[in-house]
Amino acid sequence: MTAYYNEIDKKAAAWLRELIKENLIPYGHVDDRSIVDVEPTDLVGYAQCHFFAGVGGWGIACRLAGWPDDREIWSASCPCQPFSVAGKGAGTADARHLWPDFFRLVRARRPAAIVGEQVAAAIGKDWFDGVRTDLEGIAYACRGVVVPACAVNAPHRRDRLWFVADAKWNEQPREEPCRRSIGRMGRIEQPIPWNTSWESALASFRILDDGLPRSVAATDAARNTIVPQVAAEVIAALMETTNV
Questions:
Q1: For residues 164 and 242, is the Cβ–Cβ distance under 8 A?
Q2: Answer CATH for 3-196+225-242 from 3.40.50.360, 3.30.1330.40, 3.30.70.360, 3.40.50.150
């Protein structure tokens, strides 16, 4: 197995297993424990480790960008609730602020490359300042950029803070990542065709306007996943910068 997926939501974990069966994401193991229960030794032997894996967005993005399945990379889409404008605004005091648990594993295992994302509102709550301080404190160089989904021609804005980190940048001067033009994914077959029946797809989400809890729960996967096409551009920028 080349990949490790950590996802506490049982439905999303089942989804990941199906994606693995269909070879849509790198072959690997799905661990549905909380990240707080994961030990560094659990991750030995895996090239890719995707935490808060959702429905496999980072695994898809790696393949879109041409990142080899057997090349080391870790991803983290930490819970957004502590920092989202729709949340309670507790920030790092929120129990769902799980960056420290991810960083605990990073510090122990020191993966070659790290990518991740968070809601853009986290910038105003100093989330990324903490992330960057932690990573640079153990000799990673870290950069972040806000990129919306519409940058890859998706029909919605969906601003997200994307970040990359790699210890190699501290070994010799290199250009900062993410300077490449975002939105050139037309050269790669997209798993989500934005220009195909998007209006009809949106119709299934309109019931959310009623605020029915059961409807919100039914769309958790769609609401909480990343946009793989944007993530692929971020990974491609990392590849260009580090000469992968």
A1: no
A2: 3.40.50.150
Distance between CA atoms of 238 and 71, rounded to whole angstroms? 13
**Helices 228-242 & 57-65 angle (0-180, nearest 10):** 50
Structure tokens at 188: 């790669």
210: tokens are 């009623």
Radius of gyration of the chain (CA): 17
Binning the chain into helix, strand and coil, the percentages to the nearest 5 are: 45, 15, 40
Query: Residue 23, by phi and psi: left (phi above 0), alpha (psi -120 to 50) or beta?
Result: left
Angstrom distances, CA of residue 1 to CA of 88, 102, 109:
39, 21, 18
Read off the pLDDT of residues 140-166 as tens digits, 9 standing for 90 and up.
Answer: 999 999 999 888 888 878 888 999 999
What is the model's pLDDT at position 120? Answer: 82
Cα dihedral across residues 48, 50, 56, 61: positive or negative: negative
Q: Helix, strand or coil for residue 81?
A: coil
| Banded model confidence at residue 198, pLDDT cuts 50, 70, 90 | very low
Q: Which of 186, 190, 209, 188 is nearest to 198 (CA)?
A: 190
Q: Where are the domains of the chain?
A: 3-196+225-242
Counting every residue written for the chain, the total comes to 244
Q: Residue 80: what pLDDT?
A: 74
Eight-class DSSP state of 37: G
Query: Which residues face 164 on adjacent strands?
Result: 115, 143
Give the chain's largest Cα–Cα span.
Answer: 54
